[in-house]
Amino acid sequence: MAKRKEDEVKPGAPAWQSTFADLMNLLLCFFVLLFSMSTVDAQKFEMIAASFNQTFSIFSAGATAIGDGVLISNGVSQLNELDQYINSTGKMDTGETVSEDVASAQAELEKAQLEESEELAEKIEEALEENNLDKDIDIEFTAQYVQLTLKGSLLFDSGSVELKEAALPVLDQVGAILERYAQSTIEIEGHTDNVPMSGAKYSNNDELSSGRALSVFNYMMQTTGLNPATVKHSGRGEYVPVADNSTPEGRTMNRRVEIKIYNSLSSY
To answer: How far is CA 243 from the centre of its chain?
Structure first.
């Protein structure tokens, strides 16, 4: 039985397609030419613009884009009402919606942080009392950390950054407490009063406070097994007083070293 021979496919497009394409190009050029010679009816254009204005509120009189339109239709003078509008829609300034679940989770986290700090503060306070250091070291806590405050007169002579010999046993006990209880970042801050430096090695209180914080840091690194990567030190100078610098007592309280022990849930 003879086999059917397949039809040969001629290369290129059929001839009628070329003729049709030429016709379409001519029609396109014809209508473009007609449009280029036409004129715009200004009255009809204004009517179309007014229609868009009432429908989409994108022109000067629009008043339906947000609520009743007071924020947009009245112009820039109403921008002070933006915060009130955002709050009424349950959104933050960044545009993120704050759900009740997120707010509840944040409250629970803060509560857990505070409870952990309080528990840590109680343990450290017991350790200080056992070593008779509770009179020399004040203890406070927040949701982020437990703070130990050491008096500057206990650690240093006036205008000096060298630790007193009498202060070393105290710092040894503090170091043992840090090794036992610190689970996160530790921050050592030096503070001074506002009396200007004169005739001392350091020219200002910023340098003095930084030097004192560094001295405590170095001693802790030499006598404890704390990881240096988790211990920070900084000088805050005279800028964070806790008492009135106009009295001798207040200046004494402001000369201090603070050690902050951040809890494991801290966002720091």
So the answer is: 29
Q: What domains sit in the chain, N to C, each tagged with a CATH number?
A: 47-98 (no CATH), 112-262 (3.30.1330.60)
Read off the tokens for 261. Answer: 């022990």
Cα angle: 133, vertex 138, 142; to 5 degrees: 135
User: Looking at residue 89, what DSSP letter applies?
Assistant: T
Element (H, E) at 112: helix 100-130
User: In the chain, where do the E strands start and end?
Assistant: 137-141, 145-151, 186-191, 231-235, 256-262
| 83-126: pLDDT as tens digits | 565 565 555 555 555 578 888 888 899 999 999 999 999 999 99
Q: What are the tokens at 74? A: 């009245």
Q: What is the pLDDT of residues 33-84, one digit of tens each?
A: 777 766 656 666 677 666 666 655 544 544 444 444 444 444 544 555 555 6
β-sheet bridge partners, residue 189: 234, 258
Which amino acid type is present at position 7?
Answer: D
